[in-house]
Amino acid sequence: MATRRTYNQNCPIALGLDVLGERWTLLILRELVGGPRRYGDLRAQLPGIATNLLAERLKELQDAGLVDRADLPAPIGRTVYSLSDFGWRKVLPVLRSIALLGVDRLAPVDDSGEPGPVSPLNGFLAGVLLPFDPAAAAGLTTTCRVDIDGRRFEFSVDHGHLAAARAEPAVTITASAADLYTSRFGPTDAKRKAALRRIDFDGEQRDIDALRTALSL
C-alpha cells in the first residue's frame, strides 16, 4: 500500500486535508451519505476508480473513524460500508459546502425548462442534502427513505442533524431526479411548483409535514 501523503503542517485545514484531500475520498463519502453500500455498489457509482485504490481509500477512512465496515450474517452474508456517527457529524458540513459551490456548474436547463442530465444522486443532493435546515429540524426525530429513479437513499433526522437510518422509515419520498432538481432550481416559480406536486410523500401526515419543513419541500 502506498504511503499516505501529508502536508506536515499543524493547521486545521492542512490536517483536515490530510484525511479528506486524496483523490476519490470525498466521492466515496458522498456515496455513503445515501446509506450503507457494498463494495460493488461503490465501484459501480465511481467509474474509473481502480479496485485496489478503492480498497485503500476505504481502509484509510476506517482508520480515520469516518467509515464503519460490517459483515452482515447469513443469508445476506455481505460486507457493507457506512458512515460512522463521527463521519455523519464531521463529513456532512464539508460535502454540503462543496456541493453548494458546485451546484451552479451542473448542466443547465434546456429550452423546455427541464434540467440537463440529472442523476439520482444529484436529485438526492438537490432535494435533501442542500436544502436541509437544522433550525427547522431542531425538534424532529424521524427516519426517511427516498426512492429516486430506482435508486434508494435512507437517512434519519436527529434533533437538527442528519444521521444514519436506525429504524424503518416513517416517511417515504418517491420522485424523479429531474423533479427534485427542478423543484429547487427550476427557472420559474410555476415549474418549481409543478415539479414539487409530482413528488410523492407517504407516511403519517404530521411526519410528512415536519420533514417537508426541514427539507423546504
TrEMBL record:
This is HxlR family transcriptional regulator. SUPFAM superfamilies: Winged helix' DNA-binding domain. Coiled coil: none annotated. InterPro entries: ArsR-like_HTH, HTH_HxlR, WH-like_DNA-bd_sf, WH_DNA-bd_sf.
